[in-house]
Design goal:
The protein has helices spanning about 5-15, 25. The chain is mainly α.
Length: about 50
């Protein structure tokens, strides 16, 4: 199994339980739609919580 295959499998599992992957630069502090106030913060929310 390659790293890419593992990543896609993990993203699939997360989607199955209600998470939606977002593009990191878009939600970065200086991105188009910031979801955190600094780069040390971790952001994870299920779709129904957003």
């Amino acid at each position: 199994m390659t790293e890419e295959q593992l990543e896609q499998e993990a993203l699939g599992w997360l989607e199955e339980v209600g998470y939606t992957p977002l593009f990191g630069p878009d939600i970065a502090v200086d991105g188009d739609h910031p979801e955190r106030s600094d780069y040390r913060q971790f952001h994870a929310a299920r779709d129904e919580e957003c």
